[in-house]
Amino acid sequence: MGYADFSTIWVYLSTTPLLGLTVTLIAYGLGYRLYVASGYHPLLNPVATAVLMIILLLVLSGTSYDTYFEGGQFVHFLLGPATVALAIPLYQQLSKLKKIWWPLLTGLLTGVVVGALSGMLIARIMGASLQTQLSLAPKSVTAPVAMGIAEKIGGLPSLTAVLVVSTGIIGAVFGTRLLSLMRVRDDSVKGVAMGVSAHGIGTARAFQVSREMGAFSGLAMAMTAFITAIILPWMLMYF
């Protein structure tokens, strides 16, 4: 394909919602191939790589985010069905879930409280504004819920969205290795840790390790969003 052919395709796509959808799929496909070729190196997480490629393309082409998202929103819409589908592998772990529900719930509550307050405390010590601290509080919750929480508690939803994605990528890149260094062997425990700290991106990484780890990560991700939405506004009254 020559430059003229590529230019023609680009001009056509840039006038339709297909631009965002096509760019997203191609970027992730290239990112995943690079990830596989590297032997699944955590620093080459396909989500992080795809995000960087999309940002670079939009900047170099002068394409606005709104134009990109006209097509990218179709992939965004699929996050809902994908999240619901996580119930299938979790159901397959139902017998184990019944045995560990109490320590699981305790761990989730602890993770939500520590994750939110530690982030805010570090930001406060480093001189961040109150709005930035509040935007940081729901950083470990899946993006749509986190943005809604941030808006309700006085944070900046757009900043929260960036922090959520960054948290997920960092968790996916370093989470499994850190758990290995800590000699955590149980996949259900590792899955909960990933879901609490790195939401959907961490859950995707957990499924690459094992179905059990992915199932418990998906559960932890959903429960973290639910618990955070309920208790975070109450916690901030005393922070």
Give structural notes.
82% of the residues lie in helices and 0% in strands. By secondary structure, it is an all-alpha fold. It folds into two domains: 3-77, no CATH class; 85-236, no CATH class. The longest helix has 32 residues, at 94-125. The mean pLDDT is 83.
From the structure above, extract its key features:
globular, single chain, 239 residues, mainly alpha, 82% helix, 12 helices
Structural class of the helix and strand makeup? Answer: mainly alpha
Number of helices: 12
Task: Give the mean pLDDT.
Answer: 83
Principal-axis shape: globular
Q: Which range best describes the helical content: under 10%, 10-25%, 25-40%, 40-55%, 55-70% or over 70%? A: over 70%
Quick one: how many beta strands? Answer: 0
The portion of residues forming beta strands comes to: under 5%
CA-based gyration radius:
19 Å
* Low-pLDDT runs: none
What count of domains describes the coordinates?
2
What is the first-to-last residue Cα distance? Answer: 59 Å
Lay out the secondary structure:
Elements: H1 3-14, H2 18-37, H3 46-61, H4 65-77, H5 79-85, H6 87-91, H7 94-125, H8 130-136, H9 143-153, H10 157-181, H11 187-209, H12 211-236
Helix pairs in contact: 2-3, 2-4, 7-8, 7-11, 7-12, 9-10, 9-12, 10-11, 11-12
Give a quick precis of the structure:
By secondary structure, the protein is mainly α. It contains twelve helices and no strands.
